[in-house]
Design brief:
- This protein is of the alpha+beta class and 167 residues long.
- It has one domain (3-166): Pnp Oxidase, Chain A.
- It has helices at 3-21, 62-69, 95-101, 104-110, 137-148; strands spanning 25-31, 37-43, 52-58, 72-78, 81-92, 119-133, 161-166.
- Strands 1, 2, 3, 4, 5, 6 and 7 form a seven-stranded antiparallel sheet that branches.
- Strand 4 (72-78) and strand 5 form a beta hairpin.
- It starts with a helix and ends with a strand.
């Protein structure tokens, strides 16, 4: 990878981290036993994105069975910006990490405590991500001024800033 490619990749990773930092809920997509693509909302954890995403689930759920059979997953972020993150899901049974992630929402949602043996962590080890920045007012204003002074590199109306990053 050239120095320019490396710099671009690091910039893309930074933007992706910013997108994820402001996201509370994402869509986790798995493959069902009959080969259908299934998505469901999942609460994100407040941890620094390091190419891994973390979720909590129960061992008696359909998603647990689907990931056990096929660990290839996708995580979709929808908000002011958008991202699609693909990778492999692995189960982690770490009581200290469950405790770290635990909150009142989980307590009400699962109706158990963090140390319940039916709870399991899903760690998505991201391989590749693509994101689209659309809701950035500062960028829109900057593009307007670039266009006003004749800079042809500005984003055209209706276009989004789009990057793909290998993780």
């Amino acid at each position: 990878m050239s120095n320019n490619d490396s710099t671009q990749n690091e910039k893309a990773r930074s933007v992706l981290k910013d997108i994820l930092k402001d996201t509370d809920v994402v869509m986790l997509t798995t493959i069902s036993e009959d080969g259908n693509i299934v998505s469901r909302p999942m609460q994100t954890q407040e941890v620094e994105f390091d190419e891994d995403l973390w979720f909590i689930t129960r061992k008696d759920t359909t998603k647990y069975k689907e990931i056990s059979a096929n660990p290839n997953v996708n995580v979709t972020v929808v908000g002011d910006s958008y991202a699609s993150i693909s990778g492999k899901a692995v189960f982690v049974d770490d009581i200290e990490r469950k405790k770290e992630f635990w909150n009142k929402i989980y307590e009400k949602m699962f109706d158990v405590s963090y140390d319940d043996p039916m709870l399991i962590l899903i760690k998505v080890e991201a391989d590749k991500a693509e994101y689209w920045e659309t809701g950035n007012t500062t960028k829109s204003v900057a593009n307007f001024f670039k266009k006003a002074v004749g800079n042809k590199d500005s984003v055209k109306p209706g276009e989004n800033s789009n990057e793909t990053v290998d993780l």
